[in-house]
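Holo prediction. Input below; ligand is NAP.
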Amino acid sequence: MRKTCSCITRNCTGKSYKKTVNYHQFSSQQESRHREENQRTNNCRLKTERRALNFFNRQFSINNRQSTIDNQMKRLSILGSTGSVGRNVLRVVDQFPERFSVAALAAGRNVGLLAEQVMRFTPEVAVVLNEDLAGQLKRMVMGARRLEILHGLDGYRAAATLTSADLVVSAMVGSAGLLPTMAAIEAGKSVALANKESLVMAGELVMGTARKKGVSIIPVDSEHSAIFQCLAGHRRQDLEQIILTASGGPFLDKSTEDLDGITPETALCHPTWKMGPKITIDSATLMNKGLEVIEAKWLFDLPLELIQVMIHPESVIHSMVVYRDGSVIAQLGLPDMRAPIAYALSYPERLPLGLPVPDFVDIGSLTFRELDLAKFPCLALALEACRIGETMPAVLSAANEVAVYAFLNHRIGLRRIGEAVQQVMSRHEPVSDPGLSDILEAAAWARRTAEEVARLPSPPTVYSLGASEPGNGGQV
Ligand SMILES: NC(=O)c1ccc[n+]([C@@H]2O[C@H](COP(=O)([O-])OP(=O)(O)OC[C@H]3O[C@@H](n4cnc5c(N)ncnc54)[C@H](OP(=O)(O)O)[C@@H]3O)[C@@H](O)[C@H]2O)c1
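Structure of the complex:
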């Protein structure tokens, strides 16, 4: 009798390889231990697949219901309207005025731009960070009719839960997005999600609440939108793996030593993408890809082992799904955030955006490379935080936020970002089965500790590089 067993094993970047084990080399005790181990892995995988299947069935049944209201006007509440994603959302609204209108606009400090948006899109509610900014906004939009101006967390919550809003676009940057996103879900609002930090910090709670409330969370991030599109029409139990592509950022071919001399101005000058400053720096360190792995884990209910990251410098393939018959389904397109944004706003319909399609002859070839985790410690730290789970991803995210703004303010070098995050993570004792308050507490602790570690003031009070251009937005 042939006594062999084929097991799928995965390395840390998710790459899978088949290992054939010959039981003749085993003692009977080793053989039964190996069989038990395999059984456990299979059971765990089956459980994950069943959960994923149930979740997707639910998502699709909600979305089928949604498709019956296609072609109707959708009212949007846009959190982070003055940012790179927010401005691209408004470009889509501008292009399809018969399909979208604006119920609420929420910004941070850019009152000037918000005032222009208010006059152009006439929302019912406009929100800014504090009372002083609210006063400034009031003076700037004197002529606006039926406008309520709010500020602070209560204001963001009000915008996220507005009765007249059909869809909430969550596009604030960083941890500030978590509570308004949660408020929207609690209120039963569908969410087009760009703010990845809310899933990184509290993925289980956010998705758990969405499931309970029967709310759709539709990805805006281009990689996640690609996976979402590659999953449509396929059986979830046939999924073998997902592959998130990464351009590798502007410093892919630089040596580790070269990274020492990088200034914020150089790091912000990305050759192909124009995005907000934080995500641009996260892209340079590849922390962004790590945050995206955690985002994908929660969004698609997948174990870390089934998520692979691959360098693809051309950024034409936005991500791929591998099925068990060896087929790989990919989503391709030129990098322009209006495409995933419009898909999230109009899902399952596709809007005639008029964007150019890739000229494959002109592109010539698409290339792929393996990741060098040693060169990009931030990505390695994110994978580690994901493996540890509990409150560790919230700590990673908060410490990174502090360190990124410190870099942008010329207080630390680019490589120090990863070192600071690592130091904060090493001091954290994860809280098991955390509730929202545990997560917020852990994040607040991480911010204080990161400031102490890198001797930094708090980011929002010192950050002053100004707003980014809307550009094409996108992912690195
Ligand atoms: N940019 C992209 O192409 C892209 C692609 C995929 C995913 N994402 C994700 O989308 C989110 C937004 O990214 P972005 O590039 O658009 O960022 P961004 O350009 O920096 O814009 C951030 C937005 O959040 C607001 N904001 C900042 N701090 C706030 C606070 N404490 N309270 C309330 N609002 C605050 C800003 O307001 P003010 O400017 O008025 O202060 C702005 O409207 C991030 O989570 C990012 O990872 C971005």
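The chain has 18 helices and 13 strands. That is the main takeaway for now.
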